[in-house]
Specification:
The complex is a heterodimer of chains A (78) and B (467).
Chain A (H helix, E strand, L loop, with lengths): L1 H19 L4 E2 L5 H46 L1
Chain B lengths: L1 H9 L1 E2 L9 E6 L2 E7 L3 H9 L2 H7 L6 E4 L9 E7 L13 H20 L2 E3 L7 E4 L2 E4 L5 E3 L9 H17 L17 H7 L8 H17 L3 E2 L8 H17 L20 H18 L3 E5 L7 H6 L3 E6 L2 H14 L4 E5 L25 E6 L3 H7 L4 H11 E8 L5 H8 L10 H9 L2 E8 L6 E7 L3
Parallel strand pairs in B: 11-12, 11-14, 12-13, 14-15
Antiparallel strand pairs in B: 1-2, 2-3, 3-5, 4-5, 6-9, 7-8, 15-17, 16-17
Helix pairs in contact in B: 4-5, 4-8, 5-6, 5-7, 6-7, 13-15
């Protein structure tokens, strides 16, 4: 009886443990973790720079449109 | 049942196709097939139904396939069997020039960007997943895609850096021949090696600093640590930023070309205009007589004679051991949009061996033969005089890979051979036209033998004796 109880307790603890314990990656021998971490590290910075780059492109296109309209008006006046 | 057993006996799983649990390649009845396993079902369906397959194949970035109904060598795990479009020749990154590797890298990134638009991502970015089809790089691994999960770092990032960014950076900043490292390292150039070989100035380039130097340090740092990966996220914009950064880095890398001994060969030869035209005409006539579907041109330099073959619709591999010549050849191929010619870097004295697991993951050059016809123009004297390979050994090697040979004999009296002999002792008493004909005559029948006008050279058309 005690053995069964012990076994059940151990089993319950094991399940609980696997569920709540965070997923870990063992990078021993496998260089994968380093590659993941460097992405996370630079990801924020390059993400912001990329967003700025895309916005800058849109701003440039917008102003190009403005100026080309302006020069069109000048031409028609001549 | 009997038919099924017969089919299975004829089925052969490709030796290099074992790493991917999603499926594998096998040969049956002389054709190549790819099995899609049940584990890959969801991803395959998403690829086909989301529009990604259409987008990639329309852009010429992914090899097309059709679904077929044949017996599988491993029916327990089967979901579907597909038949990809067949390619005339498989080549490897250590056989590519700088621009071929660069174009392959840019295509891979372009594929990844398109993938993200359809909710998918590449799960590997190996240079071996790219092949040249009609002159352009194309992804051949249809099972390379997985559904994108927001927050997950790009699992193929490490491989991209090792297979593309590192070798290209080394070829650009250090030495054009460093893609040969692919022959030693089966999974691309290790980043710690790349980091130590690259000159210090590369640390001032933000992309190279991040993706190679910092990346190498990070790999080393985390090598023996356990990390809770689910706590660290890479947002979609971060991933797009990384891809953009990699693309910028690759585009900025320029080929490092100094004049090599072969780069300006044709400006420096002893052919008169008439002699050159006569030689071209003879090669063309011989090719018409043989009428091959495929041809290999050894010592092709920038591909002038290869193009005589490719212009006739012959699928031509244009081999040379000088990376600058192959680069020039490839750039012309791209500029002209040529589809029948594939320039590749091959040293005839040390051709690509079989490498990888059991030395069978990547095929040796000879295993990718035989070929219908070989052009060996102005090369035999280099093998004999510069490399001490006896004539009968040259004949014997060529006879194992082709039945037809268009070969040029250059005598000692020729000024180019004289040039070779100025720096070495003339230990070649047997290098005569008679010895040449005798050396080749054991394995080949001489069908035609014509002296090139205004030169001392002779062009031969030979046919293999065994068949």
């Amino acid at each position: 009886m005690n053995y069964v109880k012990l076994l059940m307790t151990l089993l319950a603890l094991f399940i609980l443990f696997s569920v709540i314990y965070p997923r870990e990656v063992h990078a021993y021998i496998d260089p994968g973790t380093g590659s993941m971490m460097v992405q996370v590290l630079i990801g924020v910075l390059v993400g912001v720079l990329f967003a700025l780059k895309m916005s800058w492109k849109r701003i440039k296109t917008f102003f190009k449109g403005l100026f080309s309209n302006g020069s069109k008006n000048e031409k028609s006046e001549e | 049942m009997a038919q099924r057993m017969k089919n299975l006996k004829n089925s052969q799983v490709i030796p290099s196709s074992f790493r991917d649990p999603s499926g594998f390649l096998f040969e049956q009845g002389g054709a190549l097939y790819r099995q899609v396993n049940t584990t890959y079902r969801a991803n395959y369906d998403h690829l086909m139904n989301s529009g990604l397959y259409e987008a990639l194949t329309a852009a010429g970035l992914l090899i097309s396939h059709e679904e077929v109904n044949i017996a599988s060598p491993r029916p327990a795990s089967i979901y579907k069997i597909i038949k990809p479009e067949s390619l005339p020749f498989i080549s490897y990154p250590y056989e590519w020039c700088f621009s071929q590797l660069k174009d392959s890298a840019l295509s891979t990134l372009r594929i990844q960007k398109i993938c993200l638009d359809f909710g998918m991502s590449l799960k590997d970015s190996s240079a071996y997943n790219i092949q040249f089809r009609k002159g352009k790089p194309v992804l051949i691994d249809t099972l390379s895609f997985e559904k994108y999960r927001e927050g997950q770092p790009w699992v193929a990032y490490r491989q991209f850096c090792q297979h593309f960014l590192a070798p290209l950076a080394l070829m650009s900043h250090k030495d054009i021949s460093l893609n040969q490292l692919f022959r030693i390292y089966i999974d691309g150039v290790p980043l710690d090696l790349a980091s130590s070989l690259l000159p210090a100035r590369t640390r001032f380039s933000v992309p190279l600093l991040s993706h190679i130097h910092l990346h190498a340090r990070s790999q080393k740092h985390f090598a023996d640590k356990t990390v809770n990966i689910s706590r660290h996220k890479l947002r979609r914009f971060g991933l797009l930023g990384i891809i953009d950064s990699l693309e910028t880095a690759i585009r900025k890398l320029q080929r490092r070309l100094h004049g090599t001994e072969w780069a300006d060969y044709y400006e420096d030869t002893n052919y008169s205009l008439d002699a050159f035209e006569h030689k071209k005409q003879l090669v063309s006539e011989f090719l018409d007589r043989v009428n091959p579907k495929t041809a290999w041109d050894f010592g092709a330099n920038v591909g002038i004679f290869s193009r005589i073959a490719s212009a006739k619709g012959i699928l031509t591999n244009s081999f040379d051991n000088d990376p600058v010549a192959v680069e020039k050849n490839y750039l012309e191929c791209v500029a002209r949009g040529e589809t029948n010619i594939l320039p590749l870097l091959v040293d005839l004295c040390n051709p690509s061996p079989g490498i990888g697991w059991q030395n069978r993951e990547r095929m040796s050059l000879a295993e990718r033969g035989p070929v219908d016809a070989i052009l060996a123009l102005a090369i035999v004297h280099h093998l004999t005089i510069s490399n001490n390979v006896p004539l009968n050994k040259i004949a014997s090697f060529l006879s194992t890979i082709s039945n037809w040979l268009i070969v040029e004999f250059v005598p000692k009296s020729d000024s180019q051979v004289q040039r070779l002999l100025t720096t070495r002792e003339d230990t070649f008493p047997d290098y005569t036209q008679q010895a040449f004909e005798h050396g080749f005559g054991e394995l080949f029948t001489i069908e035609s033998c014509i002296r090139i006008k205004e030169s001392e050279r002779t062009l031969y058309l030979m046919r293999g004796k065994k068949g």
